[in-house]
Write a structure and sequence with these properties.
Length: 260
């Protein structure tokens, strides 16, 4: 087994120049899509800021070839993302704030399970995208740690260290879709991450009702039977383990009063 397979559950290599991925002989995946600075300016606190031209690379539907039919049957998809090092003006490198589009097969806005591979991440999430964002969390995670975003929550993934690139994998619904309009209407999420030196601080977005941001570390999500093994390896071991991602409706009781 290659070192990457032990770390990620998949035989693949992360590239920096240019941003992207290459796959081992038994792994299939698409050419990564590159998110450029000009594409994500509408979701930034300062749309005119300077930063790396290529902000991050994303590849959706990465899998071992022998797993593809099982993943399709279970409506699951594995995505991988890698960020450039650096900053976006006063903000850290981050994804655009969004909500997952409702999937036709479940009738729910799907959850998403992240696993940090390289660097340090903050997964920011808020319950709603209306003027009242509800509960707001910043989950601070390092390599090997998992973060679960519950159904319907708006979220963004932030690089917490401007000097180190961030890479992560994630389990998603196969009918994944990103909705940006409600977040962009508020000029972003309810809290802006800002860099003070090499540390992330938070500024409230005045377009939302004032509230409280809770900074937490990841927990183990034992209610979903997760272990410390790489999340792709957990699928190999038990292909039914991640049905809560594609069929959150079947786990409705576990999402009530969910705490990240």
């Amino acid at each position: 087994m290659s070192d990457s397979a032990r770390l990620y559950g998949l035989d693949m290599t992360v590239h920096r120049h240019p941003l992207g991925f290459s796959y081992g002989d038994d792994v299939t995946g698409p050419m990564p899509e590159i998110r450029r600075l000009d594409q994500i300016r509408p979701s930034l606190r300062d749309p005119q800021c300077e930063g790396p031209e290529e902000v991050y690379a994303i590849a959706m539907d990465v899998a071992r070839m022998k797993d593809r039919e099982e993943l399709k049957k279970r409506m699951l998809l594995f995505g991988v993302v890698t960020y450039a090092a650096g900053r976006l003006g006063e903000e850290p490198i981050r994804s655009q704030g969004h909500v997952h589009r409702v999937s036709q097969h479940s009738g729910w806005s799907p959850p998403e399970l992240y696993e940090i591979w390289q660097g340090k991440a903050i997964v920011y999430m808020q319950e709603y995208v209306g003027d009242d964002p509800g509960r707001c969390f910043a989950v601070i995670a390092g390599p090997g740690e998992k973060v679960l975003v519950p159904p319907g929550w708006a979220h963004a993934t932030i690089s917490a260290d401007p000097n180190a690139p961030l890479t992560f994998g994630a389990w998603c619904d196969r009918e994944y879709g990103f909705e940006y309009e409600a977040v962009r209407a508020h000029k972003g999420l309810a809290w802006y991450p800002l860099l003070q030196g090499n540390h992330v601080i938070w500024q409230h977005n005045p377009r939302y009702i004032p509230g409280r941001l809770q900074a937490v570390t990841p927990r183990h999500y034992t209610e979903f039977s997760l272990t410390s093994a790489p999340i792709y390896q957990q699928f190999i071991t038990d292909p039914g383990r991640f049905q809560f991602i594609s069929r959150p409706d079947k786990y409705a009781g576990l999402w009530q009063n969910f705490h990240p």
